[in-house]
Amino acid sequence: MDHFTLKDGELHAEDVPLARISKDVGTPVYVYSRATFARHARVFRDALSGLRRPPHLAFAVKANPNLAVLRLLANEGYGADVVSGGELARALSAGMAAKDIVFSGVGKTDAELVQGLDAGIGQFNIESGEEGRELAALAASRGQVARCALRVNPDVDAGTHDKISTGRADNKFGVPIGHAPALFAELSRLPGIELRGLAVHIGSQLSDLTPLETAFAKLGDMLARLRSEGHTITHMDLGGGLGVPYRRGEHFPEPAEYGAMVARITADWDVTLMFEPGRVIAGNAGVLLTKVIRVKRGLNHPFVIVDAAMNDLARPALYGAWHDFDAVAPSGERMTANIVGPICETGDTFALDRETDALVSGDLAVFRTAGAYGATMASSYNSRGFVAEVMVDGSEFAVVADRILPGAIADAERVPDFLG
Ligand SMILES: *Cc1c(COP(=O)(O)O)cnc(C)c1O
């Protein structure tokens, strides 16, 4: 459920008409609903209320790193799962406690490892023996001890898009689960790290709980084996990945079903469970508001050319992803159209042959379910600048990211003297 609904025939975010945001801030603009974010954060937490111990919830910052979003989630008791030094800095400046931050990612640099050590973050999810040895050496040389989990690759096909599948044996993430006993034996002897658990994250936008259950069961077997070999395991990180409906009528597992499955599989684990939800919290808490530039006649269907483009919302170009598209003030008439952006690339297509509200030049429309992996993936391709972001709270709204104009980006560039 979200808070982007028609009131008196006009689409609102909570109690704010989207037309008002367009008038004040311009388009394209991402619009987030505070109430929806908070609701999703609570639903996910409630779904895990059947666990033996309170879980550690770390929002996957890459899904939506806006500082206002992170502050909102910090207020809801969430920590952060970060995958770069930049995300770590954001989580801290949004007010998340260092101890509630988990650092994931296959390519953490020495500088990023040191940044995490200096901040005193809660856990490093190390993704290789090489990284574990480097982190141990860095921590030991600074007289520190880094709390770590070893991310394993369970070789489970998440059944999602190839580009967001992370748990198959040939993906770059984690270590093959069979390597865990030898690595635990080696790494847990090193000064500088406290290896306290395992982590897994098999992919994103999962539409079925079965692959997760398979992965968690494998993790449970490995937990038992590591304990039998004398290791102390106190934390197990189950990652994120729960999918959300992008298309009206699509069915996805509810957080409560996920929570029940987790409670069943982990009943005798006797650890603190950690979670890294991203999309399930943020996805339906945002829309991308756009204006129709013009409607161009096509061979079969008209092209509705909107002022948002693949640089603002990359998912359709990147993954062929579907976003529901609705007029802000639907007339009741319908049309079949191709929805495209202005960028000079055929990939800049949001939808082909789409049945949608009838639209004409100047009309406003939204791409729904744009709160996750939306603004965070924006680029300035075609020198279009970076899209603005707004958060709504009841009848108020605030700009939470300024539009960055093309000129400001060009200001960071230089023509060297040797070019005259
Ligand atoms: C991207 C990512 C997540 C979040 O995935 P969602 O599908 O958005 O829940 C969690 N953990 C790690 C390690 C990730 O890379």
TrEMBL record:
Q: Which residues are in the Orn/DAP/Arg decarboxylase 2 C-terminal domain? A: 30-371
- GO molecular function per UniProt: diaminopimelate decarboxylase activity; pyridoxal phosphate binding
**Chemical reaction(s) catalysed:** meso-2,6-diaminopimelate + H(+) = L-lysine + CO2
| Gene Ontology terms: biological process | lysine biosynthetic process via diaminopimelate
Q: Which cofactors does this gene product need?
A: pyridoxal 5'-phosphate
N6-(pyridoxal phosphate)lysine sites (modified residues): K62
Provide the active-site residues from the annotation.
Answer: C344 (proton donor)
Q: Name one Pfam family in it.
A: Orn_Arg_deC_N
The UniProt annotation places pyridoxal 5'-phosphate binding at G241, E276, P277, G278, R279, Y373
Claim: Amino-acid biosynthesis is one of the keywords in the record:
yes
InterPro entries linked:
Ala_racemase/Decarboxylase_C, DAP_deCOOHase_LysA, De-COase2_C, De-COase2_N, De-COase2_pyr-phos_BS, Orn/DAP/Arg_de-COase, PLP-binding_barrel
Pathway listed for it is: Amino-acid biosynthesis; L-lysine biosynthesis via DAP pathway; L-lysine from DL-2,6-diaminopimelate: step 1/1
Q: Where does substrate bind?
A: R279, R315, Y319, E345, Y373
Report keywords, A-Z. Answer: Amino-acid biosynthesis, Decarboxylase, Lyase, Lysine biosynthesis, Pyridoxal phosphate
Task: Name the protein family.
Answer: Belongs to the Orn/Lys/Arg decarboxylase class-II family. LysA subfamily.
Q: How does it assemble?
A: Homodimer.
Protein name, entry field: Diaminopimelate decarboxylase
Q: Which organism is it from?
A: Aurantiacibacter aquimixticola
Q: Which gene encodes it?
A: lysA
